[in-house]
Structure prediction request, 849 residues.
Amino acid sequence: MIGRLARWLPALALALAAGTVSAQNLTIGLSTPITTLDPHFHNLSPNNAMARHVFETLVRTDEAQRKLPGLAESWKALSDTEWEIKLRKGVKWHDGSEFTADDVIATFKRVPGVPNSPASFAVFVRQITSIDALDKHTLRLKTATAHPLLPSDLSSVLILPKSVAETAKTEDFNSGKAMIGTGPFRFAEYVAGDRVAFTRNDAYWGKKPHWAKVQFKMITSAPARVAALLAGDVQMIENVPTADIPKLKKDARVALSSAVSNRLIYLHMDSGRETNSPFVTTADGKPMEANPLRDPRVRRAISKMIDRDAIASRIMEGQSVPAGQLLAEQFFGTSQKLKAEKYDPAGAKKLLAEAGYPNGFGLTLHAPNNRYINDAAIAQAIAQFLTRNGIQTKLETMPSNVFFSRGSKLEFSFLLAGWGAESGDTSSPLRSLLGTYDRAAGMGAANRGRFSDAGLDALITTALTTIDDTKRGLMLAAASEKAIELMGLVPVHYEVSTWGTRKGLSYRARADQYTLAYDVVPAK
Amino acid sequence: MTVFVLRRLAQTLLVLFVTSVLVFGGLYLVGDPVEILVNPTADQIEKDRARAALGLDKPVLEQYWIFLKGTASGNLGDSFVYARPALEVIFERMPATLELAVLAMLIAIAIGIPLGLYAGLRPNGWGARAIMAGSILGFSLPTFWVGLMLILVFAVTLGWLPSTGRGPTSEFLGMQLSILHWEGLRHALLPAANLALLKLSLITRLTRAQVREQSLLDYIRFARAKGLSRTRVVGVHLLKNILIPLVTVIGLELGSVIAYAIVTETIFAWPGMGKLVIDSIFQLDRPVVVAYLMVVVFMFIVINLVVDILYSVLDPRVRLSEAKG
Prediction:
């Protein structure tokens, strides 16, 4: 019986084996399901990356988030509140019609009013008070106040043809009817929660992609994604789990591509409440009225208690870079002076004593357990470092859907979170994490420690209205230095994003964590 | 019979109402969907805009009242994430889950009943012992691990079957099904096998226990004494009587396979309802989660009803009017 079966096995294997993959086809395994193809409906990284295959922005960003000409050949500030944009000539939509200034104007009209949008793109056009076409390929934009981040905003708005922008509903994009862009790929198929497919746009104005057909599959389970790569069912995966990295490095079938991302993992401390912070206790766990976290020396001590190198090597398998500021130093607006804090238990002890807590105190660290790479494990390590060095720290982790709601209601005293600076410069974390909470000014939106310093606010506000790039960069660097000096937050590390490809391919790994099929190239 | 069905219907409405209150309230307590849905870098103005757009700025009781009013007209609310009616989103994913569940159940029945019969008729042979030991494993190994092992063996090492996703689909009775083609079936084999394992063990053990119990009863002895062939004794008399409890269990298990295929769907990236509901829970997409659970509860109630009716058909001694729903 067994012998007979064995004779049939090769035939069975042949029958089961799939057809060979053409060298022109590419299948990619994504870790997060996309929720829509409408480029202005749900502002989330996976959606934004997907839409960039079909649609394009006026300003493009490269893998290090430097700005490059996209559908706009150039942009310049004529004054503090006026910009002129020259559009690229000779660009064709997928339906063959010509790209002109009218398309841009119609697109900007659509963006703020997409019905029922759970996360809109309105913020990127909010500053624009008027937009006029001087001719078919020249635009004049006006802003209410000086707004140096306009080019950065323009890199977030995907442009639609006028006919689509004026009529299309979100479901028309999901059905493919409205998927008419200028981008390197044409839309082929979308099955919600399962896959998206594109074909090459041979009339593309820029560098034509290597791939004739591209398919994205959504494989949320990390081990399954790695297995799909090893089995050859996909040629690339995103978010390679750190636990598999040592094994994959040795595997002859795959290659890894990685880049330092724009995401910082940091600790926020309750620097707002003067007394009775909810999770601060005495060293033996009794309620304590005073809030030691308001003292910058205590916050500095916490920073010195963390062995960042140990976290990077043991928990992250080298997939993180110890952080000394808000973004890795190759990004815009960072300071060359700020280095990651060294592990210094003696210095921490001294600072605690100076602040009046020679015997330490008690604290609970709250962290999400399904949002950032190894978030729960990092939080556990930090709680242990603190406990070992005199701050008795309990740990409570929870799913992110609970964590962020509670954190925004200020229910925590000490929390771990992450911040991806989508604009690729430090203005974003400075404004949202460290600015004094102010709804009208849009400052401190994610400042869950309610850190507040008038001097820092002034620096941020000035930087946000300085059109000159060089000056603004210096101001943002100064603001970063001041924020770190006061320990408005404790930086832990920058995440490194890693993509896995089959041998013979490589990926131009990006800081914004986007997975883009046209950046997958045969290895040189 | 009519009275019985009517009483069931009234109970169904009550159960659905209680389900909706519990799930609605529970998810409201979990957290604020806006915190998850908006871009993490959004400012306060954008958060408030999203809250108003999704109707989350109203008091919770008013939100529930709006939901109830919608339900009365057959609309369980729009998904926050997809901005489409929640039921539509769920029914779009249903065929994928149904085909996987039915395939898994067929595998479990086709293998489980013969194995159980064999083990029950030859209880002391080594084959029976091996089968029973295997079924213990089938029970106790975690679905997640078995799924990954299946992928590792059949996809990564042997390369016979695809490791992930669903094959191409085609229209059948108004549903998009994939298992009607060879390519679709190849994609469905591993996840279906993974889903079938637990049920297979259950059916095997149940069949064996029933066979052991019934074999000792008088009617089997009489049949044997009458000189009927062994095939007829087992195939007609015995099988007919052990089917009664089996039908009940298979019916209920089919419900649980449909409702709880979540782990398998996640590992095999199978775009079914289970994967949808997990994603929806993480994104606090309340309308989808509430609608999904109401659909599932309704499904269980219908399956129960069908099982009860089948029962009365298979076993003339059972009267539906006496069965207290």
Remarks:
- Chain B has a mean pLDDT of 84.
- Chain B touches chain A through 60 residues (CB under 8 Å).
- Strands of chain B lie at 170-172, 175-177.
- The CA atoms of residues 90 and 273 of chain B lie 6 Å apart.
